[in-house]
Description:
- The chain is α/β, with parallel strands linked by helices.
- Helices cover 43% and strands 20% of the residues.
- β2 and β3 (26-32) form a beta hairpin.
Amino acid sequence: MGAFLGIDTSNYTTSAAVFDNISKSIIQRKQLLPVREGELGLRQSDAVFHHTVSLPELLESLFEEYKGSLSAVGVSVTPRDIEGSYMPCFLVGANSARCISAVGRVPLHAFSHQAGHIAAALYSAKRLDLIDKKFLAFHVSGGTTDALLVSPSNDKVFSIEQIASSLDLKAGQAVDRVGVMLGFPFPCGAAVDSLARKSSRVYQVHLSLKDGCCSLSGVENKCRDMFNAGESKEDICRFCIDYIMQALKMMVFYVTEKYGELPLLFSGGVSSNSILRESFEKQFGAAFAEPVFSSDNAAGIAILAGIKESEK
């Protein structure tokens, strides 16, 4: 079929990728958006500016390595596949993709950022066979802590139905808030993971769900209490991860009881946490993406564009 360009301009990362549908290989480039020390992200106007600066440089670097032609372009245009889902930062990628499509006279396919995460995780976990099957996916990141029922779709490759979520703080927000409190640079996932592994503690966390949905605001408050009490950074990080893991495990039990023992996939930046991955692979047989495909990336968008073109 050829090669497919994917573009994703999320709230955290500028990314572009080329997926070769013959070799099934991916070339990608990504750049974290700069965040000032002690801050927890960017205003949308700042994100738009940084994407506008970064995307041309990434595309130039990408096409210095990839010398071939393109069969289609894919781009993320919304955060999620739900009505009203919108962030201005995605306009940068959408406008660039439209220009490339028009100049190159190749088809343009639009997807959600969340769909891209799921596709990238399927690719990385070597489970692209699930594309035409029903499965359960958890998208655990700074913007979402969602349990999703994913089903085949003629229009969008697959349809995504949110079946449970966090009612307040998202998992990635909790990790980043705790990390910034401890003095780590944003985003804080890797630093929190590294220190949590050095703790000798394993915390038994007790919490409840509401119709399968969790609440994560308590983890930030508890970690702040631990910090003020002089507890070690290692133990604070471990408590943060154990709290999030317990919430996610309870959500897994809820959705599998309601929808059956379907294949289980984890995507999103928080899913790259090594403690979480080891626990959920062992207990649930869950499939995980490698960290480079768990964090924000355009690989999944490129893959989805390739799948759409193959359906013609």
